[in-house]
Amino acid sequence: MRIHAEVDVVNRQLANHGMKGKGKKVKTHLAIGRKPLADGDSEVFLMLSNNSNKQGVKYMIKDNIGNIFTKMINEGKSTIRFNEPPHDICIKCDDILQLKSFLMVVKKVMDGKDCGKLTLSALQPVSTKQIEGPKKKLTVMKRGDYPSQGFPQTLQHLQVSGIRLARIDNRMLKLRNLVKLDLSGNEITAVPDNFDLLDNLSDLNLSGNQIEKIPRGFCVGALAKSLKLINLSENKIVMLPNYFCNLRQLLTLNLNKNQLKLLPPSMGKFSNLKHFLASENNLKILPGSFSQLRLETLELSANDFDPQTEPKTLRDRLEEVGTLLEIVARYIVKKGISVGPEDVTPQLMNYLDSGMKCLCGCPVWNNVVTALVTMDLGRVATQISVGGLDRVCIEASLCSNKCLQMFKNNPYAF
After folding, report:
1. Percent of the chain whose pLDDT exceeds 90
2. 177/47 Cα distance (integer angstroms)
3. How many Å apart are CA 71 and CA 369, to the nearest integer?
4. φ and ψ at 314, to 5 degrees?
């Protein structure tokens, strides 16, 4: 039984005399195995090996452990307290299940239960590769370094930048442990929609490419629950579809230096968003739901906002009875029915994707009245950079004349 972890060995005798060790965890190979004794018998030991001691240090387990601290086991942390020598082995392991299994074996050896049936490791000197453990980070900055044979499945951080990559390699989309993916500075033109295996991905950098569109599957799949940061700056995006707002866990959204003319009407769905950047685009107005955001930083400089734009009603399409398509779509949304392309017609699916919400929360499509009002940006963000402006116009689609009057009187009333 063996695991790879970061370990700090604390000598309690030094601590008792007011002396502290380095207190720094180092990459360590931990193994549980048998060692023959002089009398011909054998005993089970825990062996720690690291780059400074590849021969390893052995600790007898049976009748030699005072306690195993597991209060923080769900964070991948545990401490084994040995009696002789008086050392505390402080372990930090990324693989929580593997750590739990390792500690179960230690406890069985402590209790003398089924020791003969345990799968134990050979207590031998280890190599640097064994100490480093599975590869978790990979950076490719030269085309000649690109791994043509595939990527290690244990990767958590992958950066492939500046090598004129034309598409996202499907093999990257199978790296289940990936937390951070950086594909900046390439020539990627399309984003695939099959990111569903990357359900741990929280940080995605696609800046400096040639992306024009974001597909639906990208926004409604696994990334809708995991993605915290996405950098789409320096691409060729003219419009973000409304379904993009399904990425509701986003904390940071960077859209700088694109060709955006409009933002999605449902921007207000980004309830967790703290940092929004969309400078150097072609924006003239913001969507009405923008007033629902509570940002820490807002960067909208070098756009086309006109401070002279007057509040007004743009279009009044309110009807007493909406179309059948709108009635069906409203029913699906109000009842919270989850549908996909396989459940409804393409026309209804596209209609649902284009849906907005009145600021009162009612789902709306074409049966709306659209109005412009001026919004004080200080109401939605703490730090603002909008080319010296502190107010811009927002455009809202409202479900009734009542909501229209409320919106005109106070756009923050909802």
Report:
1. 50
2. 28
3. 57
4. -90, -50
**How far is Cα of residue 361 from the mean position of the Cα atoms in its chain?**
28
* Whole-prediction pTM: 0.73
Three-class SS string for the chain? CEEEEEEEEEEHHHHHCCCCCCCCCEEEEEEEEEEECCCCCEEEEEEEEECCEEEEEEEECCCCEEEEECCCHHHCEEEEEECCCCEEEEEECCCHHHHHHHHHHHHHHHHCCCHHHCCCCCCCCCCHHHHHCCCCEEEECCHHHCCCCCCCCCCCEEEECCCCCCCCCCCHHHCCCCCEEECCCCCCCCCCCCCCCCCCCCEEECCCCCCCCCCHHHHHCCHHHHCCEEECCCCCCCECCHHHHHCCCCCEEECCCCCCCECCCCHHHCCCCCEEECCCCCCCCEEHHHHHCCEEEEECCCCCCCCCCCCEEEEECCCCCCCHHHHHHHHHHHCCCCCCCCCCCHHHHHHHHCCEECCCCCEECCCCEEEEEEEEHHHCEEEEECCCCCEEEEEEEECCHHHHHHHHHCCCCC
pLDDT band of residue 354 (cuts 50, 70, 90) is confident
d(CA 367, CA 316): 8
* Confidence at residue 19, expressed as pLDDT on a 0 to 100 scale: 57
**How far is residue 290's CA from residue 292's CA, in Å, rounded to a whole number?**
5
138: exposed, middle or buried (Cβ count in 10 Å: 0-12, 13-18, 19+): middle
CB 138 within 8 A of CB 148: no
- Identify the weakest region by mean pLDDT among 7-11, 104-108, 285-289, 311-315: 311-315
Mean pLDDT score of the chain, rounded to an integer?
88
Residue 23 above 80 pLDDT? no
